[in-house]
Amino acid sequence: GDSWGIFTFLCAALCNLPALPALNCTEELGAGQSIQKTYDLTRYLEHQLRTLAGTYLNYLGPPFNEPDFNPPRLARAERVPSATVDLDLWRGLTDNARLAANYRAYSRLLCYLRALDGQAGTAELRHRLGHFCSSLQGLVLSIAGVMSSLGYPLPAGPAGPPAPPGNPVAPNDFLKKMDDFWLLKELQTWLWRSAKDFNRLKKKVPPAVVTLRLEARGF
């Protein structure tokens, strides 16, 4: 009847429709998203280091685990990259210079932390140090990604710490513990400042753009 004829016509019409473009939402990974991820990672490492530092300082024992212990920085500790730079001077650097300084510092700090990982006396502490080293390695790679997305070259030269002159081994246990203390202290300061750096940088760079692409899909 008429109803069957109409149904047959509609089916034929649907089968012969031209291929329709399908909307596919894809996100372009740009500098803005790379900076946001790096900022989030610095904040995560800040939180992670608070627990790790407390555990490690307790492992070192007094006076290193006492809240008011604030010794002067020894000449031996100068091998560890210092974050104690005047804030106005630091902010006066270009974005490229600050990123390069962060990349070099964390590359060197990572080498020193891996040495701590091999010396830790308890399995739990070695596990925590190993996990933190993996996260810090991720931060080094993330900073490299930010520099690449902004068109900055990576700093030239070796990423690891330079070989210290003379005998690198601490002459006694107390000075070795002092080296470890300053390593953690400087790392805390670097992460605190880096979080501020990337927070400012992400405000200067627009967020990642979401684009709609048309893909022809045949039937």
UniProtKB/TrEMBL annotation:
A single GO cellular-component term on record: CRLF-CLCF1 complex
Gene Ontology molecular function: cytokine activity
InterPro entries linked to this entry: 4_helix_cytokine-like_core (IPR009079), PRF/CT (IPR010681)
Gene Ontology terms: biological process: cell surface receptor signaling pathway via JAK-STAT; positive regulation of B cell proliferation
Main localization (coarse): secreted
Pfam family, one: PRF
Role, per record: In complex with CRLF1, forms a heterodimeric neurotropic cytokine that plays a crucial role during neuronal development. Also stimulates B-cells. Binds to and activates the ILST/gp130 receptor.
Subunit-structure text: Forms a heteromeric complex with cardiotrophin-like cytokine CRLF1/CLF-1; the CRLF1-CLCF1 complex is a ligand for the ciliary neurotrophic factor receptor/CNTFR. The CRLF1-CLCF1 heterodimer binds SORL1 (via N-terminal ectodomain); within this complex, the interaction is mediated predominantly by the CRLF1 moiety. The tripartite signaling complex formed by CRLF1, CLCF1 and CNTFR also binds SORL1.
Protein family membership: Belongs to the IL-6 superfamily.
Name of the protein: Cardiotrophin-like cytokine factor 1
Primary gene name: Clcf1
